Structures are given as structure tokens and as C-alpha cells.
Amino acid sequence: MKKVLMAAGGTGGHIYPAISVAERLREKEVEVIFAGSKYRMEKKIVPQHKFPFFAFPIARLSNVKGIFLFLISIINAIRLLKRERVDIVFGWGNYTTVPFLVAALICRKPFYLHEQNVELGSANKFFYRYSSKIFLSFNKTFDTLPIKYSEKYQVVGNPIRKEFYDVTYSKCRAMLNIAPEEKMILVFGGSLGAKKLNDAIIEKLKEIENSGVKFYFVVGRQLYDEVKKKIPSEIKNVKIFDYISEMYSYMAAADLIMCRSGASTVSELIVLEKPSILIPHDFVGQVQNAEVVAKVGAAYIYRNSEVKNGIDKALSIVQNPSLLRMMEKNLRELQHENVVGKIAENLNIWRT
Q: pTM value?
């Protein structure tokens, strides 16, 4: 039986795509193990999906201690590859993958990469030239890379959780008791929330109440109590949450989504064909991710300082059914079929 090491960690945007591919490989009787940092969320998420997880003391290279821990992690990664007799390594971006990619080079093990964002992250930017292949989520990324390495690039899309393929607009709205004629906007700023987004919603409460549009508003666990105090109980069309575990159901039920533009979120919008108002962070490629969706006419982009304008735009769009339908249709230009299958099929582990 072949064995694959998934090096994935840091954020859910790196971890969940890796798990999606790992589950497909497991179905095909390929043994998959995971490795990452003992300080990040992967140590909790991966075991929940019944994969072996090896935790390493990987920290950012911001001080002497971080450098020391990185070197120790490389040594331990080499030992892991040898002890577990790993056939290939698969890196999913983020600094937590670096020790395992270095170990793969030293041990002469082939490795593959996946880039979720439009712009290559630092780890993938350095290692892709040494990889067997780098899978890309967007055509635009392909166009920015050197031609001499083009045989290594394959645009396949971003793997997302299978639950996003199993939901429908009508079923999820029925589950949430949203009437067919009602309009619903889902607003979220990530697992920790986004204070500027929250503050803007609170400032626009009167307009939201008068619109009659349902606002499902995920404010973040740390900010929930603060926001709840500022929303009068008599405003019935604004429903706040600290966190939603089954986000795919709420996203599917929405007419429009207002959110950040992380790689996984953008990919989920594309699969669900959801018009959006995107408020990108100014880092980790979120602006570029948002621009890809906006370019095909499926989203509008507003910066943090313009959030209130974004709320006005969202309220306007949901009252325009023809515009909503057009934005939904435009997202089909960015869709990729069988993303997980294409990645699995293109790993060199099937030869006897």
C-alpha cells in the first residue's frame, strides 16, 4: 500500500482541502498520514477526521527560538519520512509545511503542492520549482508563473468539503424556516469575526430593519456579547450568531453573502454560485482572490473603510432578481469539475 504524507496546517483554508483529497485517497486504499504544527488548529481538526497526525513544534521564524524549533522539526520530519516509509509528500501552503518539504528534498522523495489563493504563498513560491507538480486554483495564477516550469502547473480548482456539493437553496431555506419570498443576506468575517464589519452593521441597523431583508449575522465568538448588547431585541430581521458549524447550509440558503475573501470562502462561493460583497483583508492574497470573482461580474469589492457602502449595495442587489441571477450565472465561468478526483489521479502513486 502506498503512503502519502499531507503537510497541512495553520488555517482551515489549508487544512480542509487537504482532508478532502485525503478522504478520496483513503477510499482508493492509499494510506494517508498528516503532519503539522502542535501550536495550530490542525492538531485538533485532523484527528476528528480519523487520520493519524504527527505534531511538530513548528513556529514562525521570527526569533532565535523559532529558528531552533524549525531546525529540530526538519530533523524530526526526515526521521518521520524514513520511519513511516512515506512514498510522496503533499504540501498545502503555509510555513508549517516547510520542514516536511525540506525533508522530502533531503530524502529524495517526490512532493506535490497545492495553492489555494490567486497569488502563491511564500512556501509554495520557493518550493514549486522543485516539486513534481503544483496544483493551482485559478487560471490567473498560471499566467503569472515562469514558462520554463509550465509542465509543473495544473489548474484544477480548490478542493472544498463535500458537504458544499450536497446542499440546495430550497432545502436549506426550508430547514431555516425562510419563506420563498423572503430575501436573506448572510454576513460573516471569519471564525473570529471582523470588528469593522460588525460595527458597520450596527450603524446601519435602521436601514436594515426598514428593508425587511433577513440578515443572518455571524459576529465571532469573542465579539458576540459586545454585539448582542447593541442590537435591540425588537429588530426581528437581524439574527446574530457567535459561530455556525454547518456554514454550508446557511451559505446555500442565502441570496447574497457579505464576507472576507479567503481562498476557501471564494471557492465555496463559486461552487454554491452565490453573489457576494467581498471585504478583503489587505494581506495573504485576499484582494487578488476577490478581484477574480469581481472580474466576471459575480461580486463587488469594498475595503474595510467602505463597509457601510457595501451594506447599501447588498440591500440594493437582493431587491434586483435579474442582477442576482446574472451574478449567479457568471460564477459558472470559474467552476471546475471533479477537483478532488483530478488531484488524486495526477499523483504518481498508482504505478505498480
A: 0.91
Lowest-confidence region among 191-205, 211-225, 265-279, 338-352: 191-205
Phi, psi of 9 (to 5 degrees): -175, -175
- Report whether CATH 3.90.550.10 matches the domain 163-334: no
Where in the chain are the domains?
3-157+336-345, 163-334
The interaxial angle of helices 263-272 and 12-27, nearest 10 deg, is 60
Q: Dump pLDDT digits (tens) for 121-173.
A: 999 999 999 999 999 999 999 988 999 999 999 999 999 988 999 999 999 99
Architecture of the domain spanning 3-157+336-345: 3-Layer(aba) Sandwich (3.40)
User: Which set of grid coordinates corresponds to residue 282?
Assistant: 489587505
Domains 3-157+336-345 and 163-334 share a fold: yes
SS3 for the chain is: CCEEEEECCCCHHHHHHHHHHHHHHHHCCCEEEEEEECCCCHHHHHHHCCCCEEEECCCCCCCHHHHHHHHHHHHHHHHHHHHHCCCEEEECCCHHHHHHHHHHHHCCCCEEEEECCCCCCHHHHHHHHHCCEEEECCHHHHHHCCHHHHHHEEECCCCCCHHHHCCCHHHHHHHCCCCCCCCEEEEECCCCCCHHHHHHHHHCHHHHHHHCCEEEEECCCCCHHHHHHHCCCCCCCEEEECCCCCHHHHHHHCCEEEECCCHHHHHHHHHHCCCEEECCCCCCCHHHHHHHHHHCCCEEECCHHHHHHHHHHHHHHCCCHHHHHHHHHHHHHHCCCCHHHHHHHCCCCCCC
Q: Can you give the pLDDT at residue 151?
A: 94
